[in-house]
Design a protein that fits this description.
Number of helices of chain A: 13
Order of helices and strands of chain A: HEEEHHEHEHEEEHHEHHHHHH
Helix content of chain A: 25-40%
Mean pLDDT of chain A: 93
Radius of gyration of chain B: 15 Å
Number of strands of chain B: 4
Largest sheet of chain A: 6 strands, mixed
Structural class of chain A: alpha/beta
Number of strands of chain A: 9
Largest interface: A-B, 48 and 44 residues
Low-confidence stretches of chain A: none
Low-confidence stretches of chain B: none
Helix content of chain B: 25-40%
Distance between the termini of chain B: 19 Å
Strand order of the largest sheet of chain B: 2-1-3-4
Order of helices and strands of chain B: EHEHEHEH
CATH architecture of chain B: 3-Layer(aba) Sandwich
Distance between the termini of chain A: 69 Å
Oligomer: heterodimer
C-alpha cells in the first residue's frame, strides 16, 4: 500500500469526524478527476460524501485560493445584518498551501478561529505536462502511486510504465524548501523538515549571468507567448484584491490586449505586487495555458527579498510584511550619487 | 508624454522626475533660484512624498515614451512623514533589481535623495542622469507603439 493511500484513508476518517462533530461546515479537499494526472477541488459538506475525497500525487491545486472569498466582509451594515454567519472551514494543506494561509492570515484576510487547518506531508506533486512528456507517444489511461512513491501509469496499449517521481515532480516542488506545513491544527503523515535545495537560486543565477540584451530577450520570450488570459492572477492565493488595476477601465491603467509593451508591464507589475508576498506554490505556473515560465521574475524577487531583508513570506503570522516595514540601515547602494 | 516618431539625430532624452514636495522639489527650486545651470531634459512631477510613488508610475512613464525616470525624496531620517522614504527605499531597491533582471538598463530608472538645501546636488545629479541616458540612447524596450 502506498504512502498516499494510507494518508487518503486517514484524511477521510478525519474529515468525516470533523463534519460529524460539526467542527467544520465545509471542507476543501481534492477529488479524483476523469483524466489521469489530475484532481479537481472538492467542496465537501456532507459526511456521506467523504469517500469522494482523494489524496494522491496529483493534488497540485493550492486550495487556499478559495478561502478569502468565503470570508468576505459584507458591503454595508444592512448586508451584514442579512448575511449568514461566516462558515467554519476545514482545508487540506500541503507545505506551500500552508505558507499561503500564513501569508493570508498575516494580511488579515482570514479569521483564524473559523479555520481548521489539516496539514498533509507532501513529497512533491506531479507536473502533468512533465508526465505527459515523459510518456512520449503513449497516452495515459490511468495513473497512481506505487509502494516506493513512484508514478505507475497505465498507457493506451495496456502496458504499465513506471515514472520516477523526481523526474516528473513540478518545478515549484523541486524548488520547495519547506514541504512541512508551517501551520496546522491536524497533521497527516510525517513531513520532511527544512529540505535543502538551491534549484531556484541556480535558475535565477543562470538567468542573471546572461548579458543585459540576452536577459531582455529571455523576458521577451515570456511576453511574446502570453495571451493575457489572467489565469496566473486568478490562480494566485495572494491576488485577492477586489479591484485590480488590470481590470479597471476608468482609468484604463494598462491595455488589456497583447501589445508587447502592455504584456511586459503586466508581468513586471504582477511580479512586483507579489514581491515579499509570493509563497512560491507554483499555482500561476500550473494555471498558465501557454506553459510560460510565469515565475521568472518572481524567483528573482524572492531571492532579493531574502538577501536584502532576510525575509521569507509565509513563515510567521506575527511577522510584518517586508514592504510594510523598514529599517534605518536598509541597504541603499542603488542610490544615485552625484 | 505620448511617444511620437522622432529622428535619432538631434535626439534629446526626456526624463520624467518625481520629486517629493518637502525636500527634492524645494531642492530643485533652490537650484533654479540660485541660477545653477543644469540640463533642461527633466519633466518634473511633484508628489507629496517619495512613499507616494508606486513603481507602476515608473513603468507607465517608460511605456509612454520617457527615456528615463528619476525619483528623488528626502534623505533617510528627514522625511516630512517620518518614514515615507524609508518604506519607499525598500520598494525602489527591489524595482531596480527587477528591471535589471528583466533586461532593462538600470540607468533608466534612478533614485536619489536631495534635501531642500541641496540645489547644487540636485543639479549635479540631473547632469549625471542626463549624461548616462544620453549615452544609452532612446528608450525602445518598454515604449508602447500604438500601430501594431
Amino acid at each position: 500500500m502506498s504512502a498516499s493511500h494510507q494518508i487518503e484513508a486517514r484524511l477521510r476518517e478525519t474529515v468525516e469526524k470533523l463534519l460529524r462533530e460539526k467542527k467544520v461546515s465545509l471542507f476543501l479537499g481534492f477529488e479524483k478527476a476523469s483524466l489521469p494526472f489530475r484532481t479537481t477541488p472538492l467542496f465537501l459538506t456532507k459526511t456521506q460524501e467523504v469517500e469522494r475525497l482523494a489524496w494522491n500525487p496529483f493534488c497540485t491545486a493550492n486550495l487556499s485560493v478559495y478561502l478569502p472569498r468565503l470570508f468576505q466582509a459584507p458591503a454595508d451594515a444592512r448586508a451584514a445584518k442579512a448575511a449568514p454567519p461566516p462558515p467554519t472551514v476545514g482545508v487540506a494543506l500541503k507545505g506551500c498551501d500552508a505558507r499561503s494561509v500564513v501569508a493570508l492570515l498575516q494580511e488579515r484576510q482570514l479569521p483564524r478561529e473559523n479555520l481548521v487547518l489539516l496539514g498533509i506531508a507532501c513529497p512533491g506533486m506531479v507536473d502533468r505536462r512533465k508526465a505527459e512528456k515523459a510518456l512520449g507517444e503513449h497516452e495515459a489511461l490511468g495513473a497512481g502511486e506505487d509502494g516506493r512513491g513512484n508514478i505507475r501509469v497505465v498507457v493506451d496499449d495496456g502496458t504499465e510504465i513506471t515514472l520516477r517521481r523526481e523526474d516528473v515532480v513540478a518545478d515549484a516542488c523541486l524548488e520547495c524548501r519547506s514541504p512541512a506545513p508551517a501551520i496546522h491544527d491536524i497533521l497527516l503523515g510525517t513531513p520532511v523538515e527544512g529540505k535543502k535545495t538551491e534549484t531556484a537560486r541556480l535558475r535565477t543565477a543562470e538567468f542573471e549571468s546572461r548579458p543585459l540584451e540576452a536577459r531582455w530577450a529571455g523576458f521577451q520570450e515570456v511576453v511574446a507567448r502570453c495571451i493575457r488570459c489572467n489565469a496566473c492572477r486568478q490562480a494566485c492565493p495572494m491576488c485577492y484584491c477586489k479591484t485590480c488595476i488590470f481590470d479597471q477601465t476608468r482609468p484604463r491603467w494598462i491595455g488589456a490586449g497583447t501589445n508587447i509593451s502592455d504584456v511586459a508591464i503586466y508581468h513586471l507589475v504582477r511580479a512586483f505586487h507579489l514581491a515579499g508576498r509570493c509563497t512560491e506554490c507554483g499555482a500561476c505556473e500550473r494555471a498558465c495555458p501557454m506553459g510560460i515560465d510565469v515565475r521568472l521574475l518572481g524567483r528573482k524577487l524572492s531571492a532579493e527579498v531574502e538577501d536584502l531583508y532576510g525575509y521569507r513570506p509565509g513563515e510567521a503570522i506575527e511577522a510584518t510584511p517586508v514592504l510594510s516595514s523598514f529599517a534605518m540601515d536598509d541597504p541603499q547602494d542603488f542610490v544615485t550619487e552625484p | 508624454m505620448q511617444s511620437e516618431a522622432r529622428p535619432e539625430k538631434g535626439w534629446e532624452p526626456r526624463i520624467l522626475a518625481f520629486l517629493c514636495n518637502w525636500c527634492s522639489y524645494a531642492g530643485a527650486d533652490l537650484a533654479g533660484v540660485s541660477r545653477i545651470q543644469y540640463p533642461p531634459n527633466l519633466r518634473i512631477i511633484r508628489v507629496p512624498c517619495s512613499g507616494r510613488i508606486n513603481p507602476f508610475f515608473l513603468l507607465r512613464g517608460l511605456q509612454n515614451g520617457a527615456d528615463g525616470v528619476l525619483v528623488s525624496g528626502c534623505h533617510p531620517g528627514d522625511c516630512h512623514y517620518i518614514s515615507g522614504n524609508l518604506a519607499a527605499r525598500r520598494k525602489f531597491a527591489l524595482v531596480q533589481e527587477l528591471l535589471k533582471y528583466a533586461g532593462i538598463e538600470p540607468e533608466r530608472v534612478q533614485f536619489t535623495w536631495v534635501s531642500a538645501s541641496e540645489g547644487g546636488r540636485f543639479a549635479a545629479i540631473v547632469e549625471k542622469v542626463v549624461e548616462q541616458i544620453q549615452k544609452l540612447g532612446p528608450n525602445k524596450k518598454l515604449v508602447k507603439s500604438y500601430e501594431r
